[in-house]
Amino acid sequence: MDYVGFFLGSVAFLGLITDKIVNRIGKPARKFPSCLTCGSNMITVGLPKFMPGEVVNHLDKYGLPTNTASRFICPRGHYQLWFVPRFGNTERSFFLREQL
Ligand SMILES: [Zn+2]
Predict the structure, then answer these.
(1) Number of domains the chain is built from
(2) Residue 88 CA: distances (Å) to CA of 25, 47, 63, 85, 98
């Protein structure tokens, strides 16, 4: 019971963060996001062999294939952004910002 509460709390918390990031970036599904640090348009890069646990968990949870995830990187190397678009069977799109 405690575990379930903790889990739901974490999901709600992550949801808040995700919404915040999505609002700041705009509509990343249609155009490339820009770096919040320098404002450069981020570029897409290929997926590495090992992806962060958060991304893997999201794909697992919704049964999505690995190639639905995209990775964007700041051309000046500030950070990278993971993005999984919202599909019919997912609650929301997924974002993960990672410092490089
Ligand atoms: Zn940057």
Answers:
(1) 1
(2) 22, 23, 12, 10, 26
